[in-house]
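Our preliminary data section would be incomplete without showing what the modeling component actually yields. Below, a chain of 348 amino acids is followed by its predicted structure, encoded as tokens that our downstream tools consume directly.
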Amino acid sequence: MTTEASGGQLRRYGAEGLRLVVVTAAYYGSAELGLEQELVRGQITPFWPPTGIALVALMLWGLRMWPAVAVGAFVVNVTLGPSILPVLAIAAGNTIAPICACLLLRRAGFRPTLDRLQDALALVFLGALGGMVISSTIGTGVLVAADALPADDFWAAWSVWWTGDAMGVLFIAPLLLAARTADLPRGSPVLRSAEALLLLGGTAAVTLVATRSSVSLLFLVVPFLIWAAFRFQLLGAAPCALTASVIAIYAGALGSGPFAGQDLLAKMVILQAFNGTVALTALLLSAVITERNQTLQALQDACDDLTEALTQLAADRPLSKQPLRTDSIHSASSNPQRALGGNRQRGA
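Predicted structure:
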């Protein structure tokens, strides 16, 4: 092996190792943020960002990223207990779930650009709601089997676990995918930037009011999401949806507003319904508008190409006038009798 080839292989290994470290660190750091809103046993939270990070890493860099996910899950749970074997089982569930979700999305022909309606539907139903059943079932079952959780609390804890993992996929994955493909134009108008800030601030303000009021006002968030999707597509709708979800999850943990006086399972039903509505509105509408814009752009490009082709054709083959037959004119003028005779014969 030459020195150059050896150096290239070392660089590839170095880049791969760096990715593993980055994914592990991001998993652990986001898990610590998610645990700030824990509701059950100090380790089950209604918002678990690491699942979104893990799924995006597996989709973009391949299934070989699974060791980073597994190490991150183990490091997070080893300090939470209950013992080493249950921790290993929980870490395995947290690793298997995003892997299965990634395989399901691949099977469905998912594109990370999220520019089609079918991509948004696949992420919601296969990546989030379907794939995360694995981690929630394994994790909650392990805690009950290890006597760390009463059997009667299985479904309530399972609902929190499933909600947290699903929300991590629904809100973190689109945000990372949108940021990855973001192409902000240089010299953006000040009014457009102000509009984006107004959208984000308005979403936060309305969600705060809705989650502090005893009257059900959570539906007021939807117009802001529609506005963001129409104006900025996923790049604008994803941050607004994440902001609304985080504020609602915090209100659910405090038991304020529409969550006041509700038991844990009822809180999770309300929270899952709200977050599901927010995520579906943001993802589906953004995908539909992006798909429409791409179709219009394709039609415009086709019209431009056709116009250019017609212009070139007209330049290469100009319209030519029928030439006058001057020889016949001269012949008729020089022998008028012959011409008249021919006419009489034709008349006869």
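Residues 264-316 form the longest helix (53 residues). DSSP finds twelve helices and no strands in the chain. Preliminary results of this kind motivate Aim 1 of the renewal.
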